[in-house]
Write a sequence for this structure.
């Protein structure tokens, strides 16, 4: 499908704590194969994209970030936004100056200060629903909603974009990613963000930086049910070790070369330390991106106007049709 491939593919497992942000990347070699490198800490966000440019020799880069990129369509309608990329550089400034200020109290929540709560203690989704006058389902993008087909759970619902509390929350990661990485890059005018900037096949033909939203867990099944199936946790080194053969077999099948550190880390389940799960997800995310780029399998490249201009999409996620897209909460 992709006749042109990026010179460098990178995936960043993201978090609000800098010690939990890890990036793995692969560089295309002269023979056309990719050489994948062991994950490293992301480090200085101001230098992130420029460092990858240097590694690619100025050729096309594709970066996957594990944080939401886009707005729920019902929220966008309420604030009268029909183009996410046009809005993004304005956030934190002018009429949107409080957008990134996480609300401490329920009465501080409003459409232009939507993130909540600042800290735990007597907070709930109900506060967010009342402050924004929206139900929780409508505060999720289509790609984040629960999916059931023929009564079977296909995909669990994600935490709402603007919620900033707990292990499953994505709000804090979005704030850092939008404010510190995406917005500065857009202001410089030197990046494309899929799917808002166009179809991916066209974007990777150009020389530049292409940014996508990713979700490592979306890629787990690409490598077989044994990678992290029922009863297994990415937080468990032993469970990560059990899936090492699947990752190595996939890499061999697609002629992905692994540097020594990466091979050893995969075999060791990325070690016993608390950030082993982050390095695991950085690597799985990278391999998942390469799997989509190198395989013959079709992938969903949005043509829905709202998805490609407002909501965005998770790279590699299938859009499952013939299901109710919204379940109204009572």
């Amino acid at each position: 499908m992709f006749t042109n491939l990026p010179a460098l593919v990178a995936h960043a497992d993201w978090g609000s704590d800098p010690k939990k942000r890890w990036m793995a990347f692969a560089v295309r070699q002269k023979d056309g194969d990719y050489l994948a490198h062991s994950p490293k800490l992301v480090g200085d966000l101001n230098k992130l994209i420029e460092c990858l440019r240097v590694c690619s020799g100025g050729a096309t880069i594709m970066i996957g970030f594990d944080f939401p990129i886009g707005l729920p369509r019902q929220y966008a309608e309420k604030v009268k936004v029909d183009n996410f990329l046009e809005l993004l550089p304005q956030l934190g400034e002018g009429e949107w100056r409080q957008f990134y200020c996480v609300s401490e109290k329920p009465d501080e929540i409003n459409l232009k200060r939507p993130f909540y709560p600042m800290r735990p203690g007597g907070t709930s989704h109900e506060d967010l629903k009342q402050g924004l006058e929206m139900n929780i389902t409508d505060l999720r993008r289509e790609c984040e909603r629960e999916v059931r087909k023929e009564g079977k759970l296909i995909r669990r619902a994600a935490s709402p974009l603007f919620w900033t509390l707990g292990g499953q929350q994505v709000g804090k990661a979005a704030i850092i990613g939008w404010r510190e990485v995406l917005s500065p890059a857009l202001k410089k005018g030197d990046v494309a963000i899929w799917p808002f900037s166009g179809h991916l096949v066209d974007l990777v033909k150009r020389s530049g930086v292409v940014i996508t939203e990713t979700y490592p867990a979306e890629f787990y099944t690409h490598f077989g049910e044994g990678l992290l199936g029922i009863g297994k946790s990415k937080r468990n080194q032993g469970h990560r070790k059990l899936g090492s053969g699947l990752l190595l077999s996939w890499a061999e099948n697609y002629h992905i070369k692994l540097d020594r550190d990466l091979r050893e880390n995969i075999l060791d389940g990325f070690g016993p330390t608390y950030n082993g799960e982050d390095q695991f997800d950085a690597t799985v995310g990278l391999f998942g991106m390469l799997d989509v780029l190198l395989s013959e399998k079709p992938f969903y490249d949005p043509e829905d106007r709202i998805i490609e201009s407002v909501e965005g999409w998770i790279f590699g996620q299938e859009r499952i049709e013939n299901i109710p897209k919204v379940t109204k909460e009572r």
